[in-house]
Amino acid sequence: MRLDIISIFPEYFAPLGVSLIGKARERGTLDVRVHQLRDWAHDVHKTVDDTPYGGGPGMVMKPEVWGEAIDDVIGDGGPRMIVPTPSGRPFTQELAQELAGEEWLLFACGRYEGIDSRVMAEYGSRLRVDEVSIGDYVLAGGEVAVLVMVEAIGRLLPGVLGNVRSAVDDSFAPGAMRNLLEGPVYTKPPVWRGHEVPEVLLSGHHGKVARWRRDQALRRTVATRPELLAEIDAETLDKHDRRLLDELAFRVPPEDVAN
Ligand code: 6GU
Which parts of the sequence belong to the tRNA methyltransferase TRMD/TRM10-type domain (predicted)? Predict the structure, then answer.
């Protein structure tokens, strides 16, 4: 996958040289190119922003600089373009999966109050452009959001995760564990500062371990993300699940009832 990032703070992307993503780049699985937006500014001050039409606080990023930068970076190619912004569509595991299937992504990082909207209109008529938010809070710029998205997307690329099963088991991945948070995990030693590893995990009984893990996932989801569990496909709940949820006083739709 090729990945271009345009930003006025290329230094933010140093972490992309490290860990799984860094290894993927060394192997050639990922081709990451970070560009300094100011390289396309023409005045001595390398100005990239100006005051907003209609008034109001802050500054808006100028369309001409963005246009020249994007034109040069994409040439006659057609990447999918992602613009991080708190007013975008939510970044979810599903969108990460979708983006992991693309050959080429271009991230355009805005700062200040954002990029002049005509940039999204212009490229929206030539490329697939999505404005994307990583959550309901406001960051000072899109750079950190891009790091989050690149890590989520990168680990889904073939051969990036050491353990193929890790991505399958993700709490938000499509499939069996969808809408359930993962439960607690343990390693050696069996007792640490008086805290014991749950006995069932030492039993070697795979069926009991699987059931215990599922109970823990259900308990954790009820406690911290009940709204996730409320969306679970009722067909994926077995009678043990239903009994546990009943004990926890968590209401799920009954079995064998059409809605
Ligand atoms: Cl993608 N960008 C910025 N600046 N703030 C955010 C965000 C993105 N997602 C949540 N807050």
Answer: 1-230
The Cβ of residue 164 has, within 10 Å, a number of other Cβ atoms equal to 9
Beta strand 80-90 with 191-192: parallel, antiparallel or unpaired? unpaired
- The token duo for 208 is 């009991």
Q: Which residues pair with 32 in a beta bridge?
A: 3
Strand, coil or helix: 136: coil
Q: 10 CB under 6 A from ligand 1?
A: no
Q: Residues 52-60: contacts with CB within 8 Å, 24+ apart?
A: 52/113, 56/113, 57/113, 58/112, 58/113, 59/112, 59/113, 60/112, 60/113, 60/114, 60/115, 60/116
For residues 69 and 107, the answer to whether their CB atoms sit within 8 Å is: no
What are the residue numbers of the active site? 86, 113, 155, 170
Global confidence as pTM: 0.93
Give the chain's mean pLDDT. Answer: 94
Q: Between vectors from CA 124 to CA 116 and to CA 69, what angle results, nearest 5°?
A: 60
CA–CA separation, 216 and 168 (whole Å): 18
pLDDT at 173: 72
Q: Is the CB of 85 under 6 A from ligand 1?
A: yes
